[in-house]
Each structure stands twice: as structure tokens, then as C-alpha cells.
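Collaborator request log, item 7. Partner lab (contact: R.S.) asked for a structural prediction of Prephenate and/or arogenate dehydrogenase to inform their binding assays.
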Amino acid sequence: MDRIAILGTGLIGASVGLALREQKFPGTIFGWDKDPAQLGIALSRGAIDEATEDPVTAAVSSDVVLLAGPVFSILEWIDQLGPLLTSRQLITDVGSVKGAISERAARNFGGIGQAACLPGHPMAGKEVHGAEHAEASLFRDAVWLFTPLATASPATALETEWREWVTKFGCRTLDLDPARHDELCAWVSHLPQFVATAMSALLEDKFAGDADMRAIGGRALREMTRLGASPYSMWRDVAHTNTEAIAGSLLALEQRLMHLREHLKTPELRDEFDLANRFRAGRFRP
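Returned to partner:
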């Protein structure tokens, strides 16, 4: 693997480039972004070696193509690059929804004469976006999920090598069925985002300009609303492509909140705290 094209040099794409460099990737990293400013920042920070205005040519001439934009852009790139890439190449991505991406990829890749495709999703990120916030260490101790195509042949050498680089970033890897991925991520990633968005929007509606509220809001408020700073441009695509699973998790939370509201003065409130404490003790160990 000598040449990598990163299409989308925002937070995740630029962080991948920085991680590759930190782990001594010896080849050339090409970068493209629809926003020239982001591309320039990625180049100035050393996340990419060359900034290109012709992403198709960069992709066609690379061994590995990483699609690092929002989900809708990934779907568009899959359709555009499908007829152009060859069996000597690998295409992968970092999209937050894998059902729609894997379905589209199966129609374009993995067949005879076609490029290999390994859909992926690093469970890492920030509430801010852009190459200026990229870090080589972003993926350290994170899980990088893969949803291999069901129709794909045995893993190619490039697929194996890409997995090895991901491991060098400090990630644990896990293979999931795309539907299972989207169900789990609706609960562990998408639900927290939409809860933080709703809570932040509610507080802005009720307390906009209230200096006292801002003054007394402490760590709990900051932690609960941190994701409220996340960009709509990314989460719109997630909401549109994982709607059923997200709606199901939101409905379950609505019902749980109603249960809490109804039992603020009953012993059942203790049961909810016990369950919550048990989850935190088992999932987030010191």
C-alpha cells in the first residue's frame, strides 16, 4: 500500500492522515475536500502530502481510497467510483451508518474485476469538526467497526493491511453485520447525540440570554450538552439513513422519562438509580 486518497479532510479524515504519519506510513497521502479551507489546513498540518482538486484522478491512482465525508457524500462517491476502480484497489469509509453504505457498496464493489470494499466506522470523534481539531491520537483506545460485504470474496491483501494500520492507530477492531451495527449505534452513539441536541435546544428556548443560568451551570450541564455543538450537516445524513433505529431508541427513552416523572416520589425511583449505577459500573470502569 503506497498511495492513499482521503476524500474528505475534516476531523476524521485529517485525523486518519495524522495517525498514518505518526505510525510511519511510508507512502503518499492525497487529500481532497469540497471546502478548500479544510483541505489547506489538512495540508499545512501534515495530514496529507498533496492536496488535489481532482479527487477522481487521485482515487483512481491510489491503492486505498478512504471516504471520510457525511453519509450522503459517501453514497455518492460509491456510485461514482464503482465503475472506475479496479480489483487492485480497496475502498473503505468512516460513515456512521452502515446499512445504507453496505447495500450501495455491494452493488458496486467486491465482484469480479471490481475493487474490494471494506465499510468501516471508527467509534471516535468530537463535538467540533474540521481539520484544525484533528489529532493523531483520536482513535487510540477506540473501537473501529467493520461491516464486510456479504458477497465479497476472501479478504484481499489490501484489506488485511488496512486492518493492520487501524490496529496501529491504537484501535480494537470488531466485525458486525450492517443491521446490527446500525441498531447498536442508534443506542450508543445516535441517541446520546439527539438527547444532547434536544436538551441544548430546550435550554436555549427557555433560558436564552439568562446570565444566571449560564453562571450556575457546571460540569453536569457541560457534560450533558457537549454534543449539542455537533454539526447538523453530519447528523442530518445519519437521521435520514438510520431513521427507524433512532426513532425506536428515542421512543424508548420518552417512555423511560415518563416512568421517571411518574415515580419521582415513589420507591421505584431508587430502582432506576440502581440500574443506572449498574450500567455505569459495568460499562465505564475506572
